Amino acid sequence: MTDYGILVDYRWCSGCRACEIACQMEQGLPPQRSGVKVFEAGPWQIAGERWQHDYAPDFLDECDLCAKRTSRGKLPSCVQHCQAEILEFGRIEELSARMSGKKKQILIIP
Amino acid sequence: MEREYLLVEHEKPYSYCEDGLTVTRTSAWSGPGCHLGCGVLMYTDELDRLVKVEGDPENPFNQGRLCVRCLALPEVVNHADKLAHPMKRAREDRGKDKWERISWDAAYDLIVERFNAFKAESGPESVTFWQGTGRDISTWITRLCWSYGSPNYVVALSGTACYAPRVAGCRMSSGAFWLGDFSQQFPDRYDNPQWKLPELILIWGNNPVITNSDGMYGHWVVDCLKRGSKAITVDPRRTWLANRSELFLQIRPGTDAALALGMLNVIISEEIYDREFVEYWCYGFDELAERVADFTPEKTEQITWIPADTIRAAARMFAKADGAIVQWGVAVDMTKETLPAGQAISALFEITGNIDNPGGMIAPPSILFSTGGWGHEFLEKDARKKKIGDAEYPLYRGAMQIASTDECIKTLETDRPYPLKGAWLQAVNPLACTGPDPKRTLAALNRLEFIVCVDLFMTPTAMALADVILPAATCAERDGIRLGDGTQRGETINRAVQGGDCRSDMQINLEIGKRFNPEAWPWENVEEMYTDILRETGLTFSAMREQAPAYPPFEYHKHEKGLLRSDGQVGFQTRTGRIELYSTVYQALEQDPLPYFEEPVPSPYSTPELYEQYPLVLTTGARQLGLFHSEHRQIPHLRALHPEPLIYLHPEAATRYGLTEGCWVWVENEKGRAKRKLSLTNALDPRVCSTDHGWWYPEAPAELDEGLYGLWDLAINQLITWQPGKSGMGSNYKTLLCKVYPVEAPTAQTKGEQK
């Protein structure tokens, strides 16, 4: 599965944490554990009306990109349920090509 | 009369097998509480246990996505503490954990015997029927109340200060309720050729990515922003959406009406309103112009704390947008003078012609309009005259089918104008959530001779007050149709979990209702009742569940085609046939016919002496991820997202009062205090703090003498007063003054932290 990854468009991550609960429910993990965790930076003022406030998910050791789901043609649970639709699952080279020219992108290879 | 509904294609039947699990395609509405009803797939195993919930990618509403509450639904449905059987308790044991399990028939017999005795001795008006936020209850509880014969249908909230003021205000001044057009009325959504992307979304008094109010899936805002819409955010808190907006208007809580009047001043004085729309379709523009003439941006800045130039820029951007939405929320309702606030905000989208247009404000299509109730024809004329609050409030007498909650509290206390005897409390938790002043509320309700609660879990309200409690089914355990707020769809709720002794709210009300008044409940079972409601679709309930969701026909510009008035004439369903900027209804009901602003009480300006003692403006009830009002505190994965009640404060203010991040504080005003954990944030003005509502600890000792689940430490509503606005609607849930100081001995809070 190392050919696959998740592309995160974190400009629009709203911090809704659907990915975390989707992961925990899919894998039967307790609240303290997850294959993905959302982090927050801000809000703080940079200058004038310019403020820093972003969320972004990080993918952790317990993420296997939902191998069982994807082998049956489903999306990883976090990707399907992401409310802001900022997660994209695919082959690394395809995702990497889609990143070019865009800002606030993270390519995840767990 | 049948209407042509648009249906959604499905690959599979509504129930099918996948990998040894049964999958049920359904809508997650409701309980646990929610205002939406997203399309979901529920997975059950061979033991009839709900093991997983996924978003339904075929459903146009949420398009496969889900929020944390639905994802964690199995923990609710399978929870060990979920009420499993009807129970009763002697009246003298109220507040004690002394419940006795009884059968459904025994429970119904007891309730019917007591309620019929009250009816015979004191009249049907002596029994009151209470709901909370009304997730999925309004339709069924109103029919039960009115067909029993009581006029006293009550929403357990001071001033009915949620959704109803905006709906009532809009309907009185324009004959319809107006919501943002996010293409939700079309099954092909953003691809629909009639729909147009709104150029501007004015987010006002709600945080859509968390709150999902008014039948609006919050992330539709994000969908539109990604497609190119611009946003303006009006909020006391600099939200994530505020930081993705062109302008952020950091408003002083409770001054929404002033901001709208100031923006109207700019739009009218700069003549950037829609002249043609105003000339053809609006009534009373000159009077409105005169009213706002002195509401300059500079004056508005003094009141709202928003810079005048920002107000000017927002007004211009809104007026000039080609398609603008006001994505408005409950903050507009939760101010004392809510009707004029809603009226002023409505005037913004009305005089700019953002009515009934693509990418503007639409009148959401209905199958069964439920805000206000169902089955009022069963209420006798004599009983109608006895509705509590009608004597005090012309608006309630003249235009509302609901009783005044604030007057009901007084009636409970004084037996005037007549003594109350019984109450039916369904999906409502007034002590921990909706009711101001919970100790007063408890004492008032405790005077009743007999109280029935219907809920999913034991609540502080049921523990303190119920004589009988009936276990309601979750959305996984029942059949139903989604008839809530916002845009209605023929959306079926299909039972996924078959076992258990709980019953749906609808089944309970049908079965009890038949015993009170069989004529009002002619159906053998709920399925027949749903089929009857869906009859204009030409589909039975069981046929609809294979097809759902079904979309009622929708057209734009209905006012130009004679589709908004009952007489088929063009225009709006008002006396003048126009949108009434100057309301002839308010005039007839002895209210100011034009929008106005009144300084909230208390506030830094209306009560300067109190402000010296309580130097922070406090707003309550901003929604938190995973928690629907007072629900979900016992659901492990959701509680972990927000384990404790928080108060948010600017670091400067914290330094001033010697407080540090994470410390426990008392939030106090002249009425009472509540305990909170401190969270520092730059998102607030240093003069303003914001705190959660609806807190109790299900894990704390339950009995009244032991603290009622920690309620007296946690209930922020101990700072709030039963006091509606002049019309009887609206209340100051979001505009208070407080001080914040450290809790000396950290004891009670350790419970929650051990989780």
Give the gist of this structure.
With 110 residues, chain A is an alpha+beta fold. Helices cover 25% and strands 34% of the residues of chain A.
List the helices and strands and how they pair.
The complex is a heterodimer of chains A (110) and B (755).
Chain A: E1 4-9, H1 18-27, E2 36-47, E3 50-59, H2 67-71, H3 77-81, E4 87-91, H4 92-99, E5 105-108
Antiparallel strand pairs in A: 1-4, 1-5, 2-3
Chain B: E1 6-7, E2 15-18, E3 21-27, E4 39-44, E5 50-55, H1 68-71, H2 73-77, E6 87-88, E7 100-101, H3 104-122, E8 127-131, H4 138-148, E9 153-155, H5 164-174, E10 179-180, E11 200-204, H6 208-211, H7 220-227, E12 230-235, E13 247-250, H8 256-269, H9 275-281, E14 282-283, H10 285-292, H11 297-304, H12 308-320, E15 324-328, H13 338-351, E16 361-362, H14 381-384, H15 394-399, H16 405-414, E17 422-426, H17 430-434, H18 438-446, E18 450-455, H19 460-465, E19 468-471, E20 480-481, E21 492-493, H20 505-516, H21 526-533, H22 541-547, E22 550-551, E23 579-580, H23 584-588, H24 608-613, E24 616-620, H25 636-639, E25 646-649, H26 651-656, E26 664-668, E27 673-680, E28 688-691, H27 711-714, E29 736-742, H28 750-753
Parallel strand pairs in B: 8-9, 8-17, 11-12, 11-15, 12-13, 14-23, 17-18, 18-19, 24-28, 25-27
Antiparallel strand pairs in B: 1-22, 2-3, 3-4, 4-5, 6-7, 6-19, 10-16, 20-21, 24-29, 25-28, 26-27, 26-29
Helix pairs in contact in B: 4-20, 5-13, 8-11, 8-12, 8-13, 11-12, 16-18
